[in-house]
Specification:
187 residues; four-stranded antiparallel sheet; 29% helix; binds 2-oxoglutaric acid; binds fe (ii) ion
Length: 187
């Protein structure tokens, strides 16, 4: 997983026109998280969700879902099903990478439905920086863009916000920025 995320970081850097190894090196000492999701079958799938709509606060999510299916992304004003493929991984941009790219890459709202007859499993690898690392876009990216979209923060600040105060959605970074600035002004 670490190797896959390293390759993804190189591709993302190249697509943004920054030093190819910048993000790969940034995440080298990261504290990534692996989570196994288990969704029992549900007699009334239209009345329940396995995981409600959210954006991942982490940087990248590398997800493998079994053949039951249930992952959906919100795109073009509708929930679209991500067809399971045993030979493919789903790669999702999270809030932290959105900040690291100064908003050029967007995190994506997604959810998981439940199945009437079958239980479902998915395996998610969340790529995260070291907790005390400052989340800031690379200077060669800022050189081409005049304004910073988000203030500097640490992954542990965002983790604390999304675990204790706010369920990550498509307005997380705006609300997190307000929370961060108001909590700093109290110190
Ligand atoms: O089970 C899935 O397909 C999605 C899980 C998910 O979104 C998550 O663990 O953050
Ligand atoms: Fe997620």
């Amino acid at each position: 997983m670490k190797r896959v995320s390293g390759v993804m970081m190189e591709l993302l850097a190249m697509s943004l026109g920054v030093d190819r190894l910048h993000y790969k090196k940034y995440f080298e000492d990261g504290s990534s998280i692996m989570r196994c999701n288990y969704y029992p079958s549900c007699q009334e799938p239209s009345l329940a969700l396995g995981t409600g709509p959210h954006c991942d606060p982490t940087s990248l999510t590398i997800l493998h879902q079994d053949q039951v299916g249930g992952l959906q992304v919100y795109s073009n004003n509708t929930w679209q099903t991500v067809r399971p493929r045993h030979d493919a991984l789903v790669i999702n941009i999270g809030e932290t990478f959105m900040a690291l790219s100064n908003g050029k890459y967007k995190s994506c709202l997604h959810r998981a439905t439940v199945n009437r007859y079958k239980e479902r499993r998915s395996l998610a690898f969340f790529v995260c920086p070291r907790e005390d690392k400052v989340v800031r876009p690379p200077s060669d990216l800022l050189g081409t863009q005049s304004t910073r979209m988000y203030p500097d923060f640490t992954w542990s600040d965002l983790l604390q916000f999304t675990q204790n105060h706010y369920r990550a959605d498509d307005a997380t970074l705006q609300n997190f920025t307000k929370w961060l600035l108001s909590s700093k002004s109290l110190i």
